[in-house]
Design a protein that fits this description.
Helices cover 71% and strands 1% of the residues. It is built from 22 helices and 2 strands. Helix 12 packs parallel to helix 18.
């Protein structure tokens, strides 16, 4: 066995200096921290390179830029009193704040998204740690896996392109959704409902995770039905900036009703670039298929909800709660009409982190979901159709079916999983 003296002699004979040894010691003793810092730094640098690009976004010059310029013209209060944009109040406030910066609007818009992406990664890390703690995984190993799984979500193409290239702000409503799910796993349901309500106030798609909360109400029996009132209460509170600016109650609070009518008024059909069932020749039949599609969604969600409630022990584990919640939200995207290519942002983000950290055997599903999302974004942003949306939809349907069978098997196994 080599002694410490022998090791030092070998180092001295290798030609390295004391300074070299100092560098080597720092790197080897902090390798994982350095790697995480490098991943985050690279993610930020990629975004800094892409943020100035505004030609590829189909929405920036048509919508976001004119909205910010309108707020600059009318002022913060004056702008909030007018019918600017088609989002609900929190996003209007964000665009109004962007108008206050003496720079091109794409800079603060993209930086809002970047901040939300970083916070999401932080809470994804915390979620994974909760799951590992329940599993009894050694803390050092749990921290390492959680750190890398969360950090790598910052390098997912659809996450980067959504905020930096498209100038969309899906990351903002998703960050509150991620925090809500974190508090669900902590069994702190009041905070979970508050953050779910905030997320819903930013974007209607947060409702995709409401089925999870409904199922947990019957399974956990740890919160009152009145907790669901946080959603309308927070919705009303978040609308106050426009109401106080005298925009009007109807114009303020019926924003989501107007958005749900876009399927009929803006010619989207049954689906808009989202790979689901309706790309198999059904897109143009929204007039007769919209209501049946909504009812079918309710039926699918109801079947899985009843099955989960009857096998309540399945949801005793935190990892199963997250997995089931993601599946139910994915079901909404697959069956509801009027789905857009960005509506599964939270699902793919969390499924990726979940499979990277916890369900490695399902990592291939998360990988294909990411590839599908990336190809759809390429179709929309770069106008390049690598594969037709029909092919991507077929892949998505197969993935969804495989996941559905897996969920059924796991729920049936219950506590013996």
């Amino acid at each position: 066995m080599k002694t410490e003296g022998t090791n030092k002699k070998e180092l001295n004979n290798s030609g390295i200096t004391g300074f070299d040894k100092w560098i080597i010691d720092i790197v080897t003793n902090n390798l994982e921290k350095i790697a995480i810092f490098a991943i985050v730094l690279i993610a930020v640098l990629i975004r800094m390179k892409l943020i100035p690009e505004t030609e590829l976004s189909p929405d920036y010059k048509s919508y976001y830029l004119p909205w910010v310029e309108a707020y600059r013209e009318y002022g913060l209060i004056g702008g909030l009193s007018k019918d600017i944009g088609d989002y609900y109040v929190p996003f209007n406030v964000m665009y109004a704040i962007c108008s206050l910066f003496p720079c091109e609007p794409y800079i603060p818009i993209a930086l809002f998204s970047l901040a939300a992406e970083l916070v999401s990664a932080f809470f994804i890390r915390k979620m994974l740690l909760l799951i590992f703690d329940e599993r009894g995984v050694e803390r050092r190993i749990a921290v390492r896996i959680s750190d890398f799984s969360a950090a790598l979500t910052l390098l997912l193409p659809f996450v980067i392109w959504n905020g930096a290239l498209w100038k969309q702000c899906d990351a903002i409503y998703v960050v509150f959704l991620v925090i809500a799910l974190y508090y669900v796993l902590k069994d702190n349901y009041t905070k979970a409902f508050i953050f779910l309500a905030i997320s819903f106030s930013f974007k209607l798609q947060a409702v995709f995770f409401l089925p999870l909360f409904l199922v947990l109400y019957f399974v956990k029996k740890r919160y009152s039905i009145f907790n669901f009132l946080w959603i309308p209460v927070m919705y009303l509170i978040m609308g106050l900036p426009c109401v106080l600016s005298r925009r009007g109650l109807r114009a303020t609070y019926l924003a989501y009703l107007f958005q749900t009518q876009e399927v009929a008024t803006e010619g989207y059909g049954m689906v808009s670039y989202y790979p689901n069932f309706y790309n198999f020749g059904l897109d143009a039949f929204d007039e007769i298929l919209t209501l049946p599609a909504v009812l079918m969604t309710v039926a699918v969600l109801g079947v899985f909800a009843v099955y989960a409630i009857r096998h309540a022990s399945f949801l005793d584990k935190k990892e199963n709660v997250l997995y089931f919640g993601l599946f139910m939200a994915w079901s909404c995207c697959m069956f509801l009409p009027g789905m857009h290519e960005r509506y599964d942002y939270a699902i793919v983000l969390l499924m990726t982190a979940f499979c990277l950290g916890v369900k490695r055997e399902k990592l291939w599903i998360a990988a294909i979901m990411n590839i599908n999302s990336m190809l759809v974004y390429i179709m929309v942003l770069f106008k390049e159709e690598v594969f037709s949306i029909t092919i991507l939809s077929a892949i998505a349907v197969v993935l969804y079916a495989i996941t559905a069978f897996d969920i059924v098997k796991r729920i049936g196994a219950g506590s013996h999983e």
